[in-house]
Amino acid sequence: MGNIQGKQMVVSAIKNGTVIDHIPSKSLFKVISILKLEDINTQITFGINLESQKLGSKAIIKIADKFFEQDEINKIAILVPEAKLSIIKDYQVVEKKVITCPEKIQGITRCFNPKCITNHQNILTKFSVVSKMPNISLKCEYCEKTTDFEHFNFI
Amino acid sequence: MSTARSLVSISDFDVEEYLKIMELAAKFEANSYRNLLNGRVIASLFFEPSTRTRLSFESAINRLGGRVIGFSDIETTSTTKGETLHDTIKIISNYCDLIVMRHPLEGAAKYSSEVANVPVINAGDGANQHPTQTLLDMYSITKTQGTLENLSIALIGDLKYGRTVHSLIMAMRYFKPTFHLVAPPELALPNEYKQILTASNIPFYEHTDMQSVLNEVDIVYMTRVQKERFSDLMEYEKTKNSYILRNDMLEKTKPNMKILHPLPRVNEIQPDVDANPKAYYFEQARNGVFTRQAIISYLLNLNA
Ligand SMILES: [Zn+2]
Questions:
Q1: CB neighbours of B210 closer than 8 A, spacing ≥ 6?
Q2: Of A113, A122, A146, which has the smallest distance from its Cβ to B106's Cβ?
Q3: Mind listing the pLDDT tens digit for each residue in A63-81?
Q4: Which of the pair, B157 or A99, is modelled with greater confidence?
Q5: CB B105 to CB A123 under 8 A?
């Protein structure tokens, strides 16, 4: 696996931990919130509005001494399916993790149906993922309506 | 999380359960007044008014010897004082053995079924589901045709928004039907349901003219074409008379053919049809009571 030291480092390297790269800048704070990074006590560094050929402007998160479970990672799949996750050990990328969209999603986004009970009462939203490609769409377990990717309204 | 068995969506039951409900409904039709509930208490919670549905349920409960508590519209409840649906259902489920509920918001019954520790029967949640209507439609089909299998069914009117039509398609697809879909283009069946029909290998034909279909089918399922569903009022004016059933249109229909309608009707079935023996919608409403007796006794495991 490659050495990340080779490039110009805008955000300082970590010795051990997880790097989440290729996050669209506008989604950075949502990712932080979904992964509950505010509850982590180890060193976390962020970069935002970094140049990216693919995204125009990207963000990066480096979390020291933290290794996510796959289902934690998958929570960000509907938000930033294009993000890349690297596991760092001793300054080296030892593994790249693929983000896969889970079958069921709780919270994270609202149901787009204005008549859905979840938009009127304090109820955790629940969806089953009905399509993944090219874009994700989610079927609400309450009102049974399907919300398309372009109508996602992240909580 | 509740472990009680609820009926929220028509897909909560499988094929065997559909047939079980048909069998039980026939038993209740033969002998409707049976004290199976024996004083048990059923909550009838109508967060929006629907007198017909409520009375049908309450008749079913009374015939089973049960007692009804509840409300028939939201004005009298503490929900108007800001109580959450969660708390309302949590509290009332302590007072009863089963909840029948109607609510204007979609998904309200599903959510209530998660909160309640007694079974919940969805008597309509907004435009989403009304599964007891579908089961009574199926019972009416079984009764008049002797079977649910291999029937030719015309669905006429508003196929876009009509939830009874959507649920009937979802349930009947297990019984090898042929569907004739008759609707103005603006109110055609949504693609989602056409895809389900295709995936289930069920033949369906789309029409805009109703007369050509009437003579071919076993069941005519009428729904109302409402003016407010049209974005183009010119389109409404052009089509509004095309989906009205008159007695003179029934001359060459099959002898076993029956006309169903979820009711209430406005003018889509002309009064001159009522006297025709093929008009079945009032008996269909009567079948609703037996079907609801069947559903209640099934969910409560009463030995019917
Ligand atoms: Zn919903």
A1: B154, B156, B182, B242, B243, B245, B249
A2: A113
A3: 999 998 887 888 888 888 8
A4: B157
A5: no
Task: Decide: B57 and B285 in contact? Cβ < 8 Å.
Answer: no
For residue B292, indicate whether it is catalytic.
no
Q: Which of residues 243-272 of B touch A (CB under 8 A)?
A: none
HEC sequence for chain A: CCCHHHCCCCCCCCCCEEEEEEEEHHHHHHHHHHCCHHHCCCCEEEEEEEEECCCEEEEEEEEECCCCCHHHHHCCCCCCCCCEEEEEECCEEEEEECCCCCCEEECCECCCCCCEHHHCCCCCCEEEEEECCCCCEEEECCCCCEEEHHHCCEC
- CATH fold of the domain at A17-97: Alpha-Beta Plaits (3.30.70)
End-to-end CA distance of chain B: give it in Å, rounded: 28
Domains and CATH numbers, chain B: 10-129+288-299 (3.40.50.1370), 132-285 (3.40.50.1370)
Amino acid at B122: N
User: What is the C-alpha separation between B63 and B264, in angstroms, rounded?
Assistant: 24
Taking residue A136's Cβ as centre, other Cβ atoms within 10 Å add up to 21
Instruction: Quote the pLDDT of residue A131.
Output: 81
> Where is average pLDDT lowest: A19-23, A99-103, B298-302?
A99-103
For A5, residues 6+ apart whose C-beta sits below 8 A from its C-beta are A13, A91
Topology, domain A104-151: SH3 type barrels. (2.30.30)
Question: Are A144 and B128 within 8 A, CB to CB?
Answer: yes
Find the mean pLDDT for residues B139-147.
98
Higher pLDDT, B31 or A73: B31
Dihedral of alpha carbons B85, B86, B91, B96, sign: positive
Q: B245, exposed or middle or buried, with CB in 10 Å at 0-12, 13-18, 19+? A: buried
Percent of chain B with pLDDT over 90: 86
Exposed, middle or buried, A106 (CB in 10 Å: 0-12/13-18/19+)? exposed
- Report whether pLDDT(B235) > 50: yes
The residue annotated as part of the active site, out of B54, B63, B102, B103, is B102
Q: Is B286 a catalytic residue?
A: no
B85 touching chain A per CB within 8 A:
yes
Phi and psi at residue A32, to the nearest 5°: -60, -40
**Is residue B1 pLDDT above 60, yes or no?**
no
Integer-rounded Cα Rg, in Å, for chain A is 17
**ipTM of predicted assembly, 2 dp:** 0.90
Report the predicted TM-score, pTM, of the whole model to 2 decimal places: 0.88
Q: Per-domain residue ranges for chain A?
A: 17-97, 104-151
